[in-house]
Specification:
Number of helices of chain A: 10
Distance between the termini of chain B: 54 Å
Largest sheet of chain B: none
Number of helices of chain B: 13
Structural class of chain B: mainly alpha
Oligomer: heterodimer
CATH architecture of the largest domain in chain A: 3-Layer(aba) Sandwich
Helix content of chain B: over 70%
Largest sheet of chain A: 6 strands, mixed
Strand order of the largest sheet of chain A: 6-7-8-3-9-10
Distance between the termini of chain A: 39 Å
Strand content of chain A: 15-25%
CATH class of chain B: Mainly Alpha
Structural class of chain A: alpha/beta
CATH architecture of chain B: Orthogonal Bundle
CATH topology of chain B: ABC transporter involved in vitamin B12 uptake, BtuC
Chain lengths: 256, 329
């Protein structure tokens, strides 16, 4: 039994008197595709933001790959190999798909402006490498046909794939996907699921927020259920589907 | 004929100096989305910094260190950069509006300091007798004017090339990403605060350089050269030419300053003497109208922003119309 890749302990996030995340504890095992489900307003996206360093936790700890990252910035967390996508995709609309993806590469020496003046050769060399790697990632995500289009002008489903492509550029250990299936047409959804499975087979660990229960039940194991900021159940898809608390809080309303 | 030729030299020198300021603002606003409402303040700091460091010794003044002109210019650039750093550190972590308010405030304060701190700035009389670079090598003032235009053009070209290098690079890509969506940029490992700081300070330093060149051009400084309307004019140049494009910035500078000068000429020749000062308001109205018309009919400016940033990313396949839609979406 290896240590979990991500271990969230007693995570609490309050906004005024509202406890959006309330003493939530769960683990993401290395190599797993862990699902995070729960009714709207359960605190799933808030928890995601806290793990990724966008808004700190009020209390609790987040151990990623053996290190407490609860007080680190989003910038540092990304560099350590944890990256996220957004519920509503956030492409940079006036940049091409290719440059959206190139941007996401880590360790770019050309991000220091003086290097563009004093080390132009090294910057250009790295740019060519990044461009090649971006082209591979774009091809993997079936976006080659639109790689030169502006990201604001591609379809909603393609924007989801673009977000996945961007985070792949950092070669992350753990990828947080926030509702990857929302607003994606069925054909594109199959592609997306296929890509997740393929990446998982190559060793990437996933934590996925999703409302599409068919997708969650077939793709994710284990599944963590969040309701009103609390973890009410965590286990295999069967455990979760048969858990009365989960049916009351969430699945009941889906079936009905 | 010589008179017209000399006037054109004078006009182009002013345009080149202002073009440097517009390029500085373009870096801050066009590429990074930082709203600097106090452009004239950083220009003034560069000018006064240069004047105080390189000006003649005077018992009534604190300054007058008689340093070589170019050392003075470098000093002016560094002081403008330091002012930019202070403003940026104080405001960049806050919401965008604070930067606009802070920069507007600082430019007003600087003008007031220039007007009232007489032992440093010479007060309303300004600082006079400032050195003009290489002036002693020329016997003909008109030849010197041409030489000085060339000198300013060289500086403008260096700024242009250096900026083009910087913005068509991974750094420029991060600038645009931050301008478009800070949260997404942060989630992809970028450090928006640091990058904004760099952009703002570099832009301020460029404005400071323009101030130093302005001192060399006219040989004196006074508070009247740094009125808030200059900020408005510089913004007009950037909007008309095309924000986010350095060629647009330079073109806009030429057009707006051309319109300003031409309208001033028309007013001073056609309007009866008693109405001249009131007719001056027509100039501001003219530039205001040009801004409105640009925003209505050509919102991206005469030369808009290019889709592709990096020189290694190939061309864009999205037509301009879709690009407009993409920007709105």
């Amino acid at each position: 039994m290896t240590a979990p890749l991500l271990k969230v302990t007693d995570a609490t996030k309050t906004f005024g008197s509202m406890r959006a995340v309330d003493n939530a504890s769960f683990e993401v095992a290395t190599g797993s595709i862990t699902g995070l489900i729960g009714p709207n307003g359960a605190g799933k996206s808030t928890l995601f933001g806290a793990i990724a360093g966008e808004n700190g936790l009020t209390s609790g700890s987040v151990i990623f790959d053996g290190e407490d990252i609860a007080s680190l910035s989003a910038t540092d967390i990304y560099a350590r190999g944890l990256s996220r996508t957004f519920q509503i995709p956030r492409p940079f609309p006036t940049m091409t798909v290719l440059e959206n993806v190139m941007l996401a590469a880590t360790g770019q020496i050309g991000e220091r402006f003086w290097n563009t003046w004093f080390r132009p050769g090294a910057v250009a060399r790295q740019e060519r490498e990044i461009r090649e790697r971006a082209a591979e990632v774009i091809q993997f995500c079936n976006l080659t046909a639109v790689e030169r289009n502006l990201a604001g002008a591609i379809s909603g489903g393609q924007k989801k794939l673009l977000e996945l492509a961007r985070v792949l550029m950092s070669d992350p250990k753990l990828i947080l996907l926030d509702e990857p299936a929302a607003g994606v047409n069925p054909a594109l959804l199959d592609t997306l699921v296929e890509k997740i499975v393929e990446l998982n087979a190559r060793g990437k660990t996933f934590l996925i927020i999703e409302h599409n229960m068919d997708m969650v039940m077939s793709l994710c194991d284990p599944i963590v259920v969040l309701a009103q900021g609390k973890v009410i159940c965590a286990g295999t898809p069967e455990d979760v589907a048969n858990n009365s608390a989960v049916i009351d809080a969430y699945l009941g309303e889906v079936v009905a | 004929m010589v008179g017209i030729a000399l006037y054109i030299v004078f006009f182009l020198t002013v345009v080149s100096i202002y073009a440097i300021i517009v390029m500085g603002l373009n870096l801050q606003w066009g590429y990074t989305g930082l709203f600097n409402a106090g452009v004239v303040g950083f220009f003034a700091i560069g000018a006064y910094g240069t004047a105080i460091l390189s000006g003649p010794d005077n018992v009534r003044l604190i300054g007058g260190f008689e340093l070589p002109y170019f050392i003075g210019v470098i000093g002016g650039i560094l002081i403008a950069a330091a002012a930019g750093l202070i403003v940026a550190l104080a405001t960049l972590k806050l919401r965008e509006e604070y930067l606009a308010i802070a920069t507007f405030g600082i430019s007003i304060s600087i003008q007031l300091v220039a007007l009232n701190f007489a032992s440093l700035t010479g007060g309303a009389n300004g600082l006079v007798g400032l050195p003009r670079p290489f002036y002693q090598f020329f016997t003909e003032p008109s030849v010197y004017s041409v030489f000085f235009l060339c000198l300013v053009l060289v500086f403008a070209a260096v700024v242009y090339v250096a900026l083009e290098r910087a913005v068509r690079s991974p750094w420029g890509r991060v600038l645009r990403a931050i301008r478009e969506d800070v949260t997404a940029a942060r989630s992809l490992g970028k450090n928006p605060t640091m990058i904004r700081l760099q952009s703002f300070v570099l832009g301020s330093a460029i404005m400071g350089l323009a101030g130093g060149l302005y001192v060399g051009f006219i040989g004196f400084v006074s508070p009247i050269d740094f009125l808030p309307i200059l900020t408005f004019q510089i913004w007009a140049m950037l909007i008309v030419g095309g924000s986010g494009n350095n060629r647009g910035a330079v073109l806009g500078c030429l057009i707006v300053w051309g319109l300003w000068t031409a309208s001033g000429y028309v007013i001073s020749n056609l309007v009866p003497p008693g109405f001249q000062s009131r007719a001056g308001a027509l100039q501001a109205m003219l530039i205001g109208s040009v801004i409105v018309l640009t925003l209505l009919f050509r919102p991206r400016g005469l030369i808009g922003e290019e889709d592709v940033i990096s020189t290694h990313a190939g061309a864009s396949a999205t037509p301009a119309l879709q690009a407009d839609a993409a920007e709105k979406g």
